[in-house]
Amino acid sequence: MSTPAPGIAIIGVGEVGPIFAQALGERGCAVAVYDIKLEDSATAGAIRDKAARAGARVADSLQDCLSQADWIFSAVTASQAGAVARAAARVMRPGQIFIDLNSVSPRVKQENGALVEAAGGDYVESAVMAPVPPQGVQVPMLLGGRRARALSEALNALGLRTQAVADEVGLASAIKLCRSIMIKGHEALCLQSMQAALHFGVDGRVLASLAATFPGVGWDKGYEAYLIGRVAEHGQRRSEEMREAAAMLDELGLDAGLASAIADVQQGFAQRGRGWLHALDEKGGLPDWRTLLA
């Protein structure tokens, strides 16, 4: 006899929530979604439309969303991750698993886990290691928590791509944020280097020098356009993640100035580049970045 598909609750109907809702629904799971924006008449319609396209049931409340769920995915902004964990803990029942997809510091994940488990639920942190689009639920995810190994097997059986890395909460997020300092820092360095080089009219020479120093990376094939395009498209979310990385460093007694500066660069350019998203090519790059940055 086959095991029945788990009931799914997804909190947050932004970019990630509908992707997970549609994919899990197509795999036979009953999916309910909830977003605090449903409580605002100005934004409720857009949320309902997203849910309908994903084939998910729109819950009347958070409690309604969680009522039939075995697994609860939290996919909200970093600033709301703690509030969602607190709210969910108040209405969860024993045996439900709260899967925290949010990019927050290890300390915040540990605090969220303590809230959920004190209420009788189970908590598993998930560190999403790459952009969800275009990979969807095949995006690599690292899991941590005492139920992480069993959950990883169950998720992978549904077509997800997860790996349990620890029985305790915090290490998966530490891996992600330590990596993020490198990745997002690389993007910020490229952006500011090209802005300055363009000002002096030496961008071609700088790129040629980078290509000679780091052959095979792609500095002679538009790699800078890809990096700048990533900041233009995702800089706001990346800046929030980097502020969580800064919080992690601060908690360790390390200088968080660099991580905070990376966040500022990412956020500032994202706000400036909102009108440029139409110019991204199929790889997410800005082929005409020189014109846009001039």
TrEMBL record:
- Matches recorded under Pfam families: DUF1932 (PF09130), NAD_binding_2 (PF03446)
Which intervals hold domain Phosphogluconate dehydrogenase NAD-binding putative C-terminal?
199-267
Alphabetic keyword roster: Oxidoreductase
Question: What superkingdom does the record give?
Answer: Bacteria
**Oxidoreductase listed as a keyword:** yes
Q: Which residues form the active site?
A: K176
Report the InterPro entries cross-referenced here. 6-PGluconate_DH-like_C_sf, 6PGD_dom2, 6PGDH_NADP-bd, HIBADH-related, HIBADH-related_NP60_sf, NAD(P)-bd_dom_sf, Pgluconate_DH_NAD-bd_C
Q: What sequence ranges are listed for the domain 6-phosphogluconate dehydrogenase NADP-binding?
A: 8-128
Keyword Oxidoreductase (UniProt): yes
Q: Which GO terms describe its molecular function?
A: NADP binding; oxidoreductase activity
List the PANTHER family. Answer: CYTOKINE-LIKE NUCLEAR FACTOR N-PAC (PTHR43580:SF2), OXIDOREDUCTASE GLYR1-RELATED (PTHR43580)
Protein name according to UniProt: Phosphogluconate dehydrogenase
